[in-house]
Amino acid sequence: MTTIYVDNNATTAIAPEVLEVMQPYLTSDYFNPSSMYAAARSPAQAIQKARNTVARCLGVVGPEQILFTGSATESNNAALFGSVQANPDRRHVITTSVEHPSVLEIGKELARRGFDVTFLPVDKNGELNVDDLIRALDKNTLIVSIMMANNETGVCYPVDEFARVIKETDPAIIVHTDATQAVGKIPVNLSTDLKHVDLLSFSGHKIHAPKGVGALFVRQGTRWRPFILGGHQEKGRRAGTENVPYIVGLAKACELAVAGVADEQTRIRGLRDRLEKTLVELIPGLEVNGSGALSRLPNTLNIAIHGVEGEAILYELSRHGICASSGSACTSGTLDPSHVLKAMQVPFTAIHGSLRISLSRYNDARDIDKIIEVLPEIITDLRKLSPYWDNEQNCFKL
Ligand code: PMP
């Protein structure tokens, strides 16, 4: 049975081009880039070249503003805690109620430490309201962290507009964005649209590089202090011997991702739209989470299927070789429903029947055909067992 992988917002396959450029730094060029002998020059130069590439891909003038990290989680921790440490005079942090846990949990931790933390709400489409932001900003605001695109629903946030409003209110407020799901799917340019953003995080493994490497952009002049101490690497801003092969892989993946944005916007969006339209037609009681949002990632489809359990759908899909994800957090070892869908006030019964399908450049029309072939049948079968579904009327029991 062939595997159909449609869980690309969770992680992606390593691109062959990425693996190829990493290879020498895993084998012959293993030297510590900080060593003095001539052989160490190759890995040291490879890091510099990778930094230039990542900077170019994100429209950054001045590659020293890019720091390599171990993950987007680390980048988010460094962005938020590094800002808090550097600005002891301010105690108010603003973020959203739909961030990835690597930002959300920091917000909760800062609240426990006595900071004033605002979690901006979203509406039923998953969208933020700029007026809520304006109302929240005050003289004590230190940092605002708003993701570019949501990993569960794909809803995109107008970070450029929000950042402009923040800087017009008070240029000293630091603006951070988690761009982990945005890079390679939508344009990310720190010189044009995102010129008011001070800190930006992203990760390698969402763009066909390995897991365990990420980057943080720190705009020159930002009041920010290093988060990981204990070494001179990255000019003392992120200690620890550099993971040269992964850094090289991340840069190659960035190049391919940025070159692939046009394909995302046309071919992948086309695949997603066909899947969405057909499933809406074939499955009664199906809603697309975030469908009313102004902008959604081209690769992401998050659906609520009333009257069935997301985990049961995943299990059945998996029997057909299809790897997707449930919209709830149950896959991550907790039975709590998704905080994102809860924030969007998706009804309880629909949150539990949520399914996320996320595509990549390695998906094609046959993958979509297969999902269309098997998913409606799986839902019909599961609903036969559901106490919430009226099989006679083919609708949700009220
Ligand atoms: N932010 C977002 C929006 C994500 O989707 C993820 C990964 N699911 C992360 C942060 C964390 O990335 P990493 O796995 O590299 O720590």
Folded structure, characterized:
The strands form 4 sheets. A 7-stranded mixed beta sheet has the order 2-8-7-6-5-3-4, with helices on both faces. The mean pLDDT is 95. Helix content is 38%, strand content 15%. The chain has helices at residues 16-26, 41-57, 72-86, 101-112, 130-136, 159-169, 244-259, 261-282, 310-319, 339-343, 348-351, 365-384, and strands at residues 4-5, 66-69, 92-96, 116-120, 141-145, 174-178, 199-203, 214-218, 286-288, 300-305, 322-323, 325-326, 354-358, 389-390, 395-396. The structure holds 4'-deoxy-4'-aminopyridoxal-5'-phosphate (PMP). 4'-deoxy-4'-aminopyridoxal-5'-phosphate (PMP) binds next to helix 3.
Considering the protein shown, what is the CATH homologous superfamily of the largest domain? Type I PLP-dependent aspartate aminotransferase-like (Major domain)
CA-atom Rg in angstroms? 22 Å
In DSSP terms (H or I, runs of 4 or more residues), the helix count works out at 12
CATH class of the largest domain: Alpha Beta
